[in-house]
Design brief:
Helix content is about 25%, strand content about 20%. It contains 12 helices and 19 strands. The protein has a 6-stranded parallel beta sheet with strand order 7-6-5-4-3-11. A 6-stranded antiparallel beta sheet has the order 12-13-14-19-16-17, covered by helices on one side. Strand 13 and strand 14 form a beta hairpin. The radius of gyration is 22 Å and the shape is globular.
């Protein structure tokens, strides 16, 4: 990596943070701790401010980046609107970081790996947490990857959870993730012990469980007192790509339909907030293991994001094959990753997630419900699937394939509606005009082709969530 350029960017980031540091509400937690909303569909701050989770899977951040690289990465994440980093705290036993510092051994006695005056593994993790906080970013700590559960008895899990809870309970930007790419019925007692030990020490932070691909935490832990919100992993398979899974949990040929996991999770009671914590990554082979297979593209990661959020999720997690493992020259890559992580952050999908976040926060977010009835005719299957959502006086429809769509404007308040098309690839807005309280057929302008996705936005003309003259969702409030 070009260190001179990197240092310049870090310096600029530091200056920008110093300028805004005096502004009221500079950091999200200035609005209070995160908690579940009264309708059990969202995560909000204590003062009622909405929280839109725009995450990135930065799994090996604490192991593979040095201090300078941590600063660069988190600065870029802030620039592109990411506010949650999903990281693995422990990837193995033992786990080491880039400085050669050891985190653990089979004893699960973590105090002997954190010594006063020594910049060890845990001190580097502390630094990462603090740098994230300086950028207004939460760290979603996956405490130990699921493959390591074979080494963790309930007793060891309790010891580890107590250590973690005590160490990070007073940090403002922690979110806890139990599990790690594993079914919840594998090591259940240890996962429960870990979660409860953390919660016994830490009353300040919310918690979830990161499950295996094509599963949801709701199937195993929805009734747990320690679970604040559910997470599913829609995973990296394409339609029909079964790959011999013996414990396949969804219907054949629905692999890419991540919106289905919201409905599956809501079958459990009580309903909890839900998020896709690991969809298909940009630039990863479809199915993971055949490196000659087609790779997921920016339009695929957009589709997963909008299907999930419009389908009822309170946010979304993006991922990139090279970034999640922080590949660089000289490191052995998994899943056919080829780009250095800093180059991968230039891929189009990485920069397109901010338009979704800006759109959702331009509107009354917490009143929103998923509702397919805003689409007046058949919503389609597979890539033709359209997903609708609305608040009291606005509605949204995501159309991936570019087919014409009939939208029922009667589903929201107002005798007249302003209607736009948004291009989710660049955030551009096109004003279509003012419509009555009716069903209207809208053309997507792009035609019925791949990479033709558009978002339909309809708003009661009495509301100015988006001003008529806006040409991009990032500037939707400007006159």
């Amino acid at each position: 990596m070009n260190l001179n350029i990197k240092t310049l960017v870090v310096g600029l980031c530091a200056m920008a943070m110093s300028v805004v540091a005096t502004a009221k509400g500079d950091k999200p937690w200035d609005n209070g701790k995160l908690k579940v909303s009264d309708n059990n569909l969202y995560i909000i701050h204590e003062n009622g401010e909405p929280f839109f989770w725009l995450g990135n899977t930065a799994w090996l951040l604490s192991e593979r980046l040095n201090r300078e690289e941590v600063e660069y990465f988190l600065c870029k994440e802030k620039e592109f609107g990411y506010n949650v980093e999903q990281i693995q705290v422990l990837n193995g036993i033992p786990t080491f970081n880039i400085y050669g510092a050891q985190a653990n051994d089979m004893s699960f006695d973590f105090d002997k790996f954190s010594k006063e005056g020594v910049y060890g593994y845990w001190e580097h993790l502390d630094y990462i947490v603090d740098q994230a906080a300086a950028n207004g970013i939460y760290i979603a700590m996956d405490c130990i990857w699921g493959s390591q559960i074979k080494h963790m008895t309930p007793e060891k899990a309790t010891k580890y959870g107590t250590f973690l809870g005590r160490r990070y309970k007073d940090k403002p930007n922690i979110i806890w993730m139990i599990g790690g790419d594993i079914r919840g019925d594998k090591g259940t007692e240890s996962w429960d012990a870990l979660a409860r030990a953390i919660k016994a020490e830490d009353k300040n932070h919310i918690m979830t469980f990161h499950p295996r691909g094509r599963t949801t935490s709701a199937w195993w832990f929805n009734d747990r007192e320690w679970l604040d919100f559910n997470m599913f992993q829609s995973g990296h398979r394409r339609y029909g790509q079964r790959n011999g899974d013996g414990d396949y949990t969804i219907a054949e040929n629905t692999e890419e339909d991540n919106w289905r996991y919201v409905l599956m999770s809501w079958e459990k009671k009580p309903i909890r907030p839900i998020i896709d914590g690991e969809p298909s990554y940009e630039d990863i082979p479809q199915g993971l293991h055949d490196f000659s297979a087609p790779r997921w593209q920016d339009y695929d990661v957009r589709r997963y994001a909008y299907w999930a959020v419009f389908g009822g999720c309170f946010g979304h997690t993006y991922g990139h094959n090279s970034v999640m493992q922080f590949i660089r020259p000289g490191l052995l890559a998994s899943f056919g990753a080829e780009k250095p992580w800093w180059d991968a952050m230039k891929d189009p999908g990485y920069g397109q997630m901010k338009y979704l976040k800006s759109l959702m926060l331009a509107l009354p977010f917490v009143e929103r419900v998923a509702d397919q009835s805003v689409i007046a005719e058949q919503t389609g299957e597979r890539y033709d699937y359209m997903v609708g959502t609305h608040g009291k006086d606005y509605l949204l429809v995501y159309n991936f394939s570019g087919k014409n769509v009939k939208v029922d404007l009667r589903k929201i308040r107002g005798s007249k509606k302003n209607v736009w098309l948004m291009n989710p690839a660049n955030g551009d807005l096109k004003y279509l005009g003012e419509y009555g309280n009716e069903v209207v057929e809208l053309s997507m302008e792009s035609g019925y082709i791949r990479d033709a996705d558009r978002v339909i936005i309809a708003v009661d003309t009495k509301k100015e969530y988006i001003v008529k003259g806006a040409t991009n969702i990032l500037d939707s409030k400007k006159k």
